[in-house]
Amino acid sequence: MAEMRTRKTTIGERTLLAFDFGTTRIGVAVGQELLGTASALTPLPARDGIPNQEALKKLIDEWQPDLFIVGLPINMDGTESEMSRRARKFGNRLYGHYGKPWFGVDERGTTKQAKSIAKDLGHRGSYKDNPVDGIAAQLILEAWFADPQG
Question: What DSSP assignment string belongs to 67-78?
Answer without folding.
Answer: EEEEEE---TTS
